[in-house]
Specification:
The protein is α/β, with parallel strands linked by helices. It is built from four helices and 40 strands. The protein is flat.
C-alpha cells in the first residue's frame, strides 16, 4: 500500500483530501474499485466523477475535486504514467540463459543477461549488460544490442543491425528485413541486393508486428526516443528523427526523411524520397505526397494544412444543397424559355 501523500510527492502534484489515505492500486473511473486511485483527464469521463467507487482521483488543474480525495497535476497524463509504473507488477524472472538457447561461441554476452528458450544468437553478435531476450528470438550475424534492452518473444533481428540502449521491442517484430527493391528488364523483376543495415537509437519502443527494412546502401535509422505502435512499416533508408510518435498502420516509404518530434495518426503514410519537417503532425489516414514543412498540422489525401482541408470539407458538405438549388434554377429557366 502507498499513502496518497506519497503518490502526490511522486508526481509533484497538489494533494486534495486525506494525505494518509491508503492506495492499493489503480482502476478505471467508470469501474472504480475502493482503495484505488483513478484517472480523469477527458471530458467524456468526467460524468463518472460523482459515481466512481475509486477512493481517489488524479486529474488536471482545471478540474475541481470538491470533497473528493485526489491529486491535481499540471500534466496529469505524465503523472498517471508514473503512478501506473509505481503499481506495475515486477517480473520475478531471474537472469540466465535457457538450456535450449543456441549461442555461437563468437558471440559476446554481457552481465545479467536473460536469453529465453529456443532463441538463436548467431556469430559475432554483441549483447550488452542487463538485456532480456524472450523465447524464440533470433539475432543475426554481427548485430549488436546495447545494455538495458528487452526483446519480447519471436523478435527477429537480421544481420548487421545496431540496437541502442534501453530499447523495448515487442513480439513479432522484424528488424533488418530486405527493403522492397526491384529493377525490371525484359518483363522480369530483378532483385536489388539490400546490403545496408538498421540503426535503432536509445530509448526507442517498437510495437508488435512491425517491419523495419534494412537500407539498400547505408542504414535505415530510428531516432532516439521515438515510439512505434503495432503494425508500423519503415522502408529502406528511411530516417526517423528523435522523439517521433508513429501510431498503428503508419507506413513510411523508402528514403524519406522524418524530422524530430513528428507525430503520425493511425494509417498515416509518407511516399518515398520526401521530407517531413520537425514537429509536424499528420492526422489519421493522411497521405503525404510531397515534402512538408514542420510545425504544422496536416490532414487528408493528399496531405495539406488541416485548416485548408477543413474548409474544403465544409464546401463539399454543401454540394447536395447546391445541386438541388442548381436543379431548381434549371427548371425555372426552362419554364421561362417555354413561356417566352
Amino acid at each position: 500500500m502507498t499513502k496518497l501523500k506519497e503518490l502526490s510527492l511522486l508526481v509533484d502534484g497538489a494533494l486534495v483530501g486525506n494525505p494518509d489515505l491508503e492506495i492499493t492500486g489503480v482502476s478505471e473511473v467508470k469501474n472504480g474499485i475502493p482503495g484505488t486511485i483513478t484517472f480523469v483527464n477527458y471530458p467524456k469521463y468526467k460524468q463518472y466523477l460523482n459515481t466512481t467507487e475509486a477512493s481517489a482521483v488524479l486529474t488536471g488543474k482545471d478540474e475541481n475535486l470538491d470533497d473528493m480525495n485526489g491529486i491535481i497535476s499540471d500534466n496529469p497524463t505524465v503523472a498517471f504514467s508514473k503512478i501506473l509504473n509505481h503499481f506495475a507488477p515486477v517480473s520475478d524472472a531471474t537472469a540466465g540463459i535457457h538450456k535450449t538457447a543456441v549461442i555461437d561461441d563468437s558471440a559476446v554476452i554481457g552481465k545479467n543477461v536473460t536469453i529465453g528458450p529456443f532463441t538463436v544468437i548467431e556469430r559475432n553478435v554483441q549483447i550488452g549488460d542487463d538485456v532480456r531476450i524472450g523465447p524464440q528470438c533470433t539475432v543475426g550475424i554481427g548485430s549488436s544490442i546495447a545494455g538495458g534492452c528487452e526483446l519480447k518473444s519471436l523478435v527477429v533481428i537480421y544481420e548487421g543491425c545496431k540496437i541502442g540502449s534501453d530499447v523495448l521491442i515487442h513480439s513479432g517484430t522484424v528488424i533488418g528485413c530486405d527493403g522492397y527493391g526491384f529493377a525490371t528488364e525484359g518483363g522480369v523483376h530483378l532483385k536489388i541486393p539490400q546490403i545496408g543495415g538498421v540503426e535503432v537509437g536509445d530509448d526507442v519502443e517498437i510495437g508488435a508486428n512491425c517491419a523495419i527494412d534494412r537500407g539498400t546502401i547505408g542504414n535505415t535509422v530510428i531516432g532516439e526516443g521515438s515510439k512505434l505502435d503495432n503494425l508500423v512499416h519503415i522502408a529502406h533508408n528511411v530516417i526517423i528523427g528523435k522523439g517521433c510518435l508513429l501510431t498503428a498502420q503508419t507506413a513510411v516509404a523508402g528514403s524519406s526523411v522524418i524530422g524530430d518530434y513528428v507525430a503520425f495518426g493511425g494509417k498515416a503514410s509518407v511516399a518515398g524520397h520526401l521530407e517531413v519537417g520537425s514537429h509536424a503532425q499528420l492526422a489519421a489516414k493522411s497521405g503525404v505526397t510531397k515534402s512538408l514543412p514542420g510545425n504544422e498540422t496536416y490532414a487528408g489525401m493528399p496531405a495539406r494544412k488541416i485548416s485548408k482541408k477543413n474548409k474544403q470539407d465544409a464546401l463539399f458538405s454543401r454540394l447536395p444543397k447546391m445541386v438541388k438549388q442548381l436543379k431548381a434554377l434549371e427548371e425555372r429557366l426552362a419554364q421561362l424559355e417555354k413561356n417566352g
